[in-house]
Amino acid sequence: MPxxxxxxxxxxxxxxxxxxxxxxxxxxxxxIATTLIVRPASNGPFAMPMAYADSPMAGARGVFAFTGxxxxxxxxxxxLDVDTRNVWCYEYLPNTRKLRLVFARSFDYDRxxxxxxxxxxxxxDMIRKLIExxxxxxxxxxxTGGAADDDGLxxxxxxxxxxxxxxxxxxxx
Length: 173
Known about the structure:
Blueprint: H1 20-38, E1 63-71, E2 74-81, E3 86-93, E4 98-106, H2 124-144
Antiparallel strand pairs: 1-2, 2-3, 3-4
């Protein structure tokens, strides 16, 4: 219906938009922030629960996978299950594009063996003797003020080149 008077205009009051939704979101965010800060935690207010934090490697459980050399030009995927004490290896065959199980074994009872199939130079008794000799030499050097030993005991490790000290004589030009 047109206005009765052409000079009269209709005035409408501006109604403010409802901001209830924004207030509810702000209050919920404040509640969440408060519970994060106030909750009891052993490592501070923002500490993550253990399930989400990085766990240390020592004493870790589960299956570990790593690659390594099986033979010359043959690589494998080694799997280690700590819980069941098993180790196994797969080899990738590029011609057939398949994995082949190379070996699998349990090492459950291996930990009860003391010495099995060891090289004579790496047997624990031999290593113990080498360490005892080395300690005796160090004690003698400390007692004599670093003088050289003439008893003929060797500190060399079998299989490694000798590490004798170079001559300290000055070179002449």
